[in-house]
Amino acid sequence: MYAFQKALAFFLLVFFCACSSEMVKTRIGDFTIVSSRNVDLSKVPDASKHLKARGVEGIYLTKPSEKMKGLENGVSQAIDDAVNKAAGDYMLNCVLYFIEKDDKVGFMVVGDVVETLEDKYGK
After folding, report:
1. What are phi and psi for residue 78, nearest 5 degrees?
2. Per residue in 86-100, is it b (16+ CB within 10 Å) or e — as a string?
3. CA pseudo-torsion sign 73, 76, 79, 84
4. 36, 83 in Cβ contact below 8 A?
5. Residue-wise pLDDT tens digits, 18-69
6. Fewer CB within 10 Å: N-end or C-end of the chain?
7. Per-domain boundaries in the chain
8. In sequence order, what E strands does 1-123 have?
């Protein structure tokens, strides 16, 4: 009987540890076009030809505080994370989530990243 109790305790410990690291997502909204900076859309008449990647995820996480400081720019930082991963300029068909993972909260965006081909660093 003692071996059974040890096995049960071990199983419960593993089960609860595995469950605690899951990400809880709450869908906030869907956006046709999203960017965290000014983008000249006239330079991309057909965005599908300049698609860099589909289903790119961008995440911003921070520890929650009393006044939730750190979340003010969370959406922008999640968008920047996704756009930088695919070396693009803006996102199409984007879904925004509020997420909770372990002891952190933040935002996640998932969408398609497009490049405008404009000179980002010149002049």
Report:
1. -65, -40
2. bebbbbbebbbbbbe
3. negative
4. yes
5. 555 688 999 999 999 998 888 887 777 788 788 899 999 999 998 877 556 6
6. C
7. 23-114
8. 23-34, 51-62, 90-101, 104-114
